[in-house]
Amino acid sequence: MTATPLQPARHVRPVGPVDVLVIAFPDLKPDGSIAEAISELVANGTVRILDIVLVYKDDAGEVTLAEVTDVDGDGIPDLVAIQGDVPGLLTDADARAAVEALPAGSAIALLAWENTWAIRASMALRRKGALLVAHDRIPAGEIDAAMDELEAMIDQETQS
Fold first, then answer.
1. Could you tell me the residue ranges of all domains in the chain?
2. What is the 3-state secondary structure (H, E, C) of the chain?
3. What is the pTM of this model?
4. pLDDT tens, 54-81?
């Protein structure tokens, strides 16, 4: 859980919380579906892309960093299409730290996005001096596992 110091913001700017995702691709084969899903989030006003960096580790362990413009490899600059706003927000140091445990022959993506859906509520809270004192996120895989466990328990009870 991330704790925040108890100090109200001096300026209330129209910004939402920013998430930085580190996504591993053990066997990256781009097909455009990821860029399409992210584009939909941007088009719906759910998020605003701030920066995307891809890090490749070849079979010899050599690391290559790339600011993303063409996510799906079709020659069309996808990051422009999804309105990446702050290229360079994620640094080489961020990428190199994230790639340390990455096996050879795989890749990771670092993605920074602003949760634009939360801007209005965030501003209202901050204007009233409210402070976010903790934040936690439950990964989808953990939710899936919990739901599987619950379904198994229900199945077990109905069979008894």
1. 16-119
2. CEECCCCCCCCCCCCCCEEEEEEEECCCCCCCHHHHHHHHHHHCCCCEEEEEEEEEECCCCCEEEEECCCCCCCCCCHHHHCCCCCCCCCCHHHHHHHHCCCCCCEEEEEEEEECHHHHHHHHHHHHCCCCCCEECCCCHHHHHHHHHHHHHHHHHHHHC
3. 0.69
4. 888 888 888 888 776 655 456 666 554 4
